[in-house]
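Render SM-20-related protein in 3D.
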Amino acid sequence: MEELLDRIAEGIYSQSYVVIDNFVDEIFRKALFDEQTDLLEKGKFRKAAIGIGEQKQIRPEIRSDEVLWMDADNLSLLQSEYWNRVEQIKQMLNRRCYLGLKSYEGHFARYPIGSFYKRHLDQFHQVPYREVTVILYVNDTWSEEDEGALRMYIHQEDGTERIEDYLPLPGRLVVFLSGEIPHEVLPTKKERNSITGWLKTID
Ligand SMILES: O=C(O)CCC(=O)C(=O)O
Ligand SMILES: [Fe+2]
């Protein structure tokens, strides 16, 4: 784990994003996937919105996933184990990158077949406190033909953008600075399951 945490800090420090394969082992990933599937079957997921508060809107032409927010006061055993790991990432980023991260919020996300999330930034005027995005993919399998990649737009020194596509491979973790990396989820051909969250500079 220490070695993985070092790689996360190094990636964030040097290029504002990092992709870590096998961040969780198969047993843990599978347990998260099963829990997510169970919550889905119980009808607990809701269509994801964009914006917050008064500005909150369901805009299926922008994003068409469904989410279930985790409740910090009511975490399952498994969820709190995942939170612990995110807590370790937080501490490492504070120690090595001085980001002043204080808390975490996160949700399970499910992208039904054909769904997507158009290009956006996770940090914007309504949520300036979202500093670091942390995504874990929990599907059992994923292949090229399933599509549904996370596309990140990386700003280059010459003013252009470089595209980086990452498939939601089982156990893969993606971490990036929420205010620096525009990104999108390309349309998926298979149901796509993940846990997405944000490390915040407020409590
Ligand atoms: O699932 C992903 O790869 C990205 C999700 C995302 O961009 C978001 O929920 O803000
Ligand atoms: Fe996002």
